[in-house]
Amino acid sequence: MFSMLYFPLVSSLATPEPAAPGNQAERFGHAVHEGKLQAAAQLTSRWIDESTASGTGEHPLHGVQLHADLQLLMGVEVEAEEYYRRSLKVIRTSKREIRAASCRNAAWQSLFRHRIGTALACFARVVDEPGIEPERTAEAQFGIVCALHELGRTGEALQALDEFAERLDNDLDDPNGHWRDLIATLRFDLAVQTELRCASKLSDHVYWQSGAAGERAAWRSRVTSGSAGPDAGTDAPEATLRDVSSPLLRTRIDYLRHLQLAALADRDAIGGLQQHLNWSREQGLGDYQRTLRLEIALAALAGAQPHYAHAMLEPLHPLVRAGATGHRQIEYLYCAAKTRQAQGRTQESLQLYSRYALVAMQCLREDASLQMPLASRVAKPGPQLDDVGARLPARYRRAYSYVLDNLERPDLSVREIAAEIGVTERALQSAFKNFLGLSPSELIRRQRMERIRAELTERAYAADRGVLVAANKWGVQNRSTLVNGYRKQFHEAPSETLER
User: Which residue range forms the structural domain that includes residue 462?
Assistant: First the structure.
């Protein structure tokens, strides 16, 4: 996905480590801005090694997390997950910080694995977490923009981007203009991505075209009215993007301009596209290369150059399993079907397009469920939508699932949960605190209160039911326990929620 390239830059900007001249954080940020991602990975590795050699026994928190981020970017998921776990263990501050860091790490891992619903839920949880650094909140808002675009919800992505820009104006210190450069580039990127997928020759790209007319009209309305800012749209003044100073962002902007030209059948654009593809290969960005090949294939098909689209797809054929499904496969299946059609291989084209249509419909159904109110899906949340479960190691996800399945039981205990998965109570407590920033008891209370609140916010609820009925349904039988727990979590009494 296109957001991969921005990830290390956003991660660097959101890191609260002071970037003093010559220190590790400053050198890392400089390497990322310059587009030297391999060098940045080596810096974080040395940062960790030097800290270990110092004899303190402590890894540098931000160095470990930045190293994990770059390993994730380069597709080394096992090592990334290990370093994310180490970074959580280094946190010595509040439970709130552990929760925020855990959500943040799970969000990026889920987004890179194309579990878009989980990523969106995790990013939203970070934004809602009170008292964290504004840079971390901005990073989560950036993630929300990217996740919404991957879901084809470009209008909502634009709205989220506007909120991101507003937060920048109100809350963030941006003396070097790096955040502003990021927003300008991202806005241009979204415009190019939207225009490409709305091209007339790609009118049968049903996953995107299903909402294309409304989204495109909304986009143009925002550009015409100026509500999206002076740098909105593919027709943004050249000076706006020319002011972007980061070589990494300039690399992306130049590539996007060549992508636009390729979609307009300009054959001279191919050289610029190939240059960016070669750069990504040199930096070891395997998944980003895959994204580039798919974007270039779409542009080539829009520009009536199916032979070039085929050349871009050729290295991807062995990587796609016959029965593969999910967001990761949508663009590939569509482009492969279109290139077969252009080659006159009609039967193969129909088979691939049938697979594409099936996967697209499956994804659209899953995406639609993200708009459902919490009350309609709280009893058995699925793994795609569950941000909490994504942050736990596999063994303890079973414990979390057991909690969800038994929330309505007043006698549910930590001892019972530990016995269910075959660990000690102490091990269960430790795992939940390390990865969630909550004890099992606190998690049970929070989950119950969320479900009670979902019941109380149903419009039809007040007609024939009351607060205690909802509380009893979710295992809370004591009124003072209900009121105290509810007020602590939502800063209002249950009766106030019911009256609204």
Answer: 392-499
